[in-house]
Amino acid sequence: MSGKTLGLFEGVGVEIEYMIVDAKTLEALPVADRILAQEAGEIVGELEAGPLCWSNELALHVIELKTNGPASSIAQIKGCFEEGISRINAHLASLGGQLMPSSMHPWFDPAKETRLWPHDQSPIYQAYNRIFGCQGHGWANLQSTHLNLPFCGDAEFSRLHAAIRLILPLLPALAASSPVFEGKMGPALDNRLQVYQTNQAKIPQITGKVIPEAAFSRKEYQRQILDPIYAAIAPHDEQAILQYEWLNSRGAIARFERNAIEIRLLDVQECAAADLGVATLIIAVLRALVEEKFSSLVEQQRWHEAPLAELFHRCVKEGEKAVIDQPDYLSLFNFPGQQGTAQELWRHLAEKVLPGQELAPLDLILSQGPLARRMERVLGREPKREALNEVYGELCRCLSAGELFRG
């Protein structure tokens, strides 16, 4: 988010990462720099493409599409992402490649196949690699969707951060798309977030419990979250290359430099319409919380990160089938009953906050489960390589055609 300081829900920023793969074999194809060079005429780390930007990521087999500054609404940008995907796929066709959606490649070997971005910003990536070692799934095999929401001043930050903290545990139940890695079903429905939690275990202050601490002003956030992170990284980062807000790897991070909070726990969906439908629901729920339609600000701020993290772990593992047996938590959303599944809670929220025409694109997710569950039903618990090729090939087709995966 940049330019004029926007208030709550006056804008939105969306970032979606895609893996680049060979169109025939679906093997990772490390050509992000060549695609950016084809579009820009030279190798660049980022370029403007109308209402979107294209940019590099840590690894050469990943490229990111993001809004070029804040958009006024989700509805404004759906066509932009579909056009961007089409343009990148056109460039990739000349190299025998295509974009692959979902959040983890099903058989990628990061120890053997990772090639880090070698151009501009490479000192940052080299520092990460030196400290943590980036030849692992948690660095080179995870694609996510980031949702950026603005605030203006401490009062708005307090309300937005309180609301975001409450829904973070539920996001895997809505957006999980990574059931497979290393050629087999993983231990969780959302394996990207399973590895995300321990990605930087060498310096645990960076990720914390994934759910941010109860900090509701810039001063509190600096003291509780950022200062401990910077102190912990300092012995490993003598040149202070990494001591910036983006080092924080919680599931939502405050970006005070651009007056926004960035939500990082969304797996990439099978098409832009699905990603943006998920974002629409999340924004609507957050608005209802901020406006205290379900519960008061005091009630929302009361929650410590530990019980929220416990629920998050459950949703990472079990997705929409995770049982929520915390009546006090359910009451924050006016849920009728003392217990329910994450799927039941999302259905309840969707019906409360979205009109029928906006609810329609989410019907499949709310009734059949997140993408990971629909993939699991087709693949079974012990998928063969041929089945993985077929399903992930279909996901590539869904991305290109802008269609949902129905399994």
Describe the structure.
By secondary structure, the chain is an alpha+beta fold. The chain has one domain: Creatine Kinase, Chain A, domain 2, CATH 3.30.590. Helix content is 43%, strand content 14%. The chain contains 18 helices and twelve strands. Strands 1, 2, 3, 4, 5, 6, 9 and 10 form an eight-stranded antiparallel β-sheet that branches. Strands 7-8 form a two-stranded antiparallel sheet. Strands 11-12 form a two-stranded antiparallel ribbon. β9 (252-255) and β10 form a beta hairpin.
Rounded to the nearest angstrom, the distance between the terminal CA atoms is 36 Å
Query: What's the SSE pattern?
Result: EHEEEHEHHHEHHEEHHEEHHHEHEHHHHH
Query: What spatial form do the alpha-carbon principal axes imply?
Result: globular
- Low-pLDDT windows of residues: none
**How many distinct folded domains?**
1
Biggest sheet statistics: 8 strands, antiparallel
Distinct helical segment count: 18
User: Could you say what the CATH architecture is?
Assistant: 2-Layer Sandwich
Gyration radius, in Å: 20 Å
Q: Tell me the β content.
A: 5-15%
Mean pLDDT: 95
Category from helices, strands and their pairing: alpha+beta
CATH class: Alpha Beta
Oligomeric state of this protein:
single chain
Number of strands: 12
The CATH topology assignment is: Creatine Kinase, Chain A, domain 2
Helix amount, in percent? 40-55%
